[in-house]
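Input sequence (145 aa), recorded before submission:
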Amino acid sequence: MAHELEESGVLNLDFEKIGSVAATGSHVIPAVAQDIDNGMVLILGYVNQLALKTAIKERVAVFWSTSRNELWIKGATSGDMLELVETRVNCEQNSILYLVRQKGEGACHTKDHHGKSRSTCYYRAILNGELKQVNADPPWGNPNG
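Predicted structure, token format:
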């Protein structure tokens, strides 16, 4: 089922996700990881106090897995670590922005058709009501190249 969701062209958004997270009783806020060098948004997760404290101490992106109810050090098993360069807090102090550098093949747990980790979890666009895989490069281009 997960593979179908992750690779399908069928749009099936999970509008119940926030409710499901709230139902776990976890005290979390959203955390976005963004590539500091090219501006690409890589992943959205959640952090609790332990995850944020661990991230700042270890200098890597750390999230709280709301599905497994445990600390999730991004890349600990895959090797696709996200080096934490800076942590920002939004104006209402209810979300975190991790500015990171990728230290592996990618940021997403899914793989492309060559078996390579995708650089971002945002590799599809809604086009004519369907999901289509797109070039994962940021639409504004690479400011460093």
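Checked by second reader. The first strand starts at residue 29 and ends at 35.
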